[in-house]
């Protein structure tokens, strides 16, 4: 832990810091938290992104108006795809694997990536998926946060991307975070179809301890909470964290700014200590992760030996994968039916499948989804997960 955390605990115990020093430390942390929140508000008002080549404004407006939104329409998913230096091609492949015109996307290459890699990613997006120019539903962050995933910068990048999505497209239902090492195990038609029957006020967070019993101090949070940093959160909860109309998100943000891995506990602690949201949680991040050794912090990379177990699980996502692993090609060919270098085809693709033509270069009604055979396993997986959430005591519901 850092000096600030140790000092705060020493002061609370009566030793270490004298009262005057303790109050100066509290004041400093409070000012840092307020400064961080002001930065988020500014980002919310002006979202920096690379401008992607598009089509004529009239065509874009026509495409956007064709997308139905609201409780009677299929859900809209807002994705944050995160990568570091050298992950540009991986992020492009991941985007194409989860792309659908109804959804929203923010691509974030960390600050240690060179500008030409970021520009290449933006150009590759439009070249590989012409629908992006028409529906204008993909943004590449042009002024990214720091390259390290540890410390407050990782959490700041996630909150910033959520603010960008709220600023650009305030009409989505769930916010999903994916890393360059992630990959889907179902098509977006499958996922949207199954989530259409799921209450949209639910949040999917994976934690292994009762983090709703009290608001911990920084060292307690680091020592007592073991959570997945990958989350699926509804829009109302994201607005609560970004706009912070109550003190809870601000207080916990101040605590988690002093923790090495804040994303492994921030959203989980906010939601489990919120009277408004804690009864709408599911203790599952909807990812297949192989845990051969419970004592091992980082899971092993998946390979072709795990294909059957992974697909049979019914989970919509899996991790981690190595770049260009043959297992990804197997998933593309057998599960996603992704052809060539284009997006995964769905009911929205109306072009003919030819060796020289991408069927998704033309599109029809994007409000129609056509689930495939893997949607059956996904539906069973989600139903089982929801049933466990109702009966399990390992949850922050009251």
TrEMBL record:
Domain of life: Eukaryota
GO cellular component, one term: membrane
UniProt keyword list: Glycoprotein, Glycosyltransferase, Membrane, Transferase, Transmembrane, Transmembrane helix
Bilayer topology: Single-pass type II membrane protein
Pfam families: Branch (PF02485)
The name this protein goes by in its record: Beta-glucuronosyltransferase GlcAT14B-like
Transmembrane segments: 23-45
